[in-house]
Amino acid sequence: MIWLGLCGLIGMIRAGEGQRIIGGQETSISQVPYLVYLRQGGGFICGGSLLTTNSVLTAAHCVYGAKEQEYTVHAGASRLDQTAPVVRSVTRFHIAPNYAARNFDMDVAILQLASPVPLTTGQVATIAPCRSQPAANTYVRISGWGVQQESSRMPAAQVRTAVVRVLPGLECQLAYAGQAHLSDSMLCAAVRGIKDSCSGDSGGPLVYRGEVCGIVSWGFGCARAAYPGVYTSVASARVKHFIEKTLANL
């Protein structure tokens, strides 16, 4: 998640400088086998979801302005301090053409891998994009290696997970009223003041009923009661169209 200061977009912390799920618990990749992580120049930067054996869903801000040859995708690993059993280079970034870096509208990208990832039961699996957005007050699962505290800068060694609530649209809009614009490509989720994604979880999945329904995107701080986490809504019309069109042409 991109952490934003309260003065508009001032105080932005680069995704990947600090990393862990807040208010969650350690888990194993066997529980979230679709979860992958990205390295840029060898350093951990973001999470992602394996959509097909040769494509990864992540946030546009994780790769925007960078070069494909700087990135590798790592699958099948629970820990960042151990070599992942599957590593693939990235041949192409497919970033939503209407992605807006100034406010994170359409914060979605698909990474095309150099070669297919072998699927392994309980370790590496694909996950389908959400067909319809989870209803308000539905509980969903987030996972990643992001920070446990806003002030932290160190990645979690072990993958973590948490269950959070999808907020009604009005509650989400009111939380950020006068501070930031929330578009139709976004949804909010958190257990406010207790559980949230944070910096470094960016690009990782929000999952409901075995489908990826959200992408960790941005927020003001982490697990603040006043400001829930904001996710790219995979089932929103514009995002869904981009994903379907991109996958059809890989």
UniProtKB/TrEMBL annotation:
The keyword Disulfide bond applies. Residues 21-248 form the Peptidase S1 domain. SUPFAM superfamilies: Trypsin-like serine proteases. Residues 1-18 form the signal peptide. Its EC number is 3.4.21.4. The keyword Disulfide bond applies. InterPro entries: Peptidase_S1, Peptidase_S1_PA, Peptidase_S1_PA_chymotrypsin, Peptidase_S1A, Trypsin_dom, TRYPSIN_HIS, TRYPSIN_SER. It is an enzyme of class 3 (hydrolase). One of its GO terms (molecular function) is serine-type endopeptidase activity. GO terms for biological process: proteolysis. GO terms for cellular component: extracellular region. Keywords: Disulfide bond, Hydrolase, Protease, Secreted, Serine protease, Signal, Zymogen. It is found in: Secreted, Extracellular space. It catalyses: Preferential cleavage: Arg-|-Xaa, Lys-|-Xaa. Belongs to the peptidase S1 family. This is trypsin. The lineage of its organism: Eukaryota, Metazoa, Ecdysozoa, Arthropoda, Hexapoda. The gene is Dvir\GJ12183.
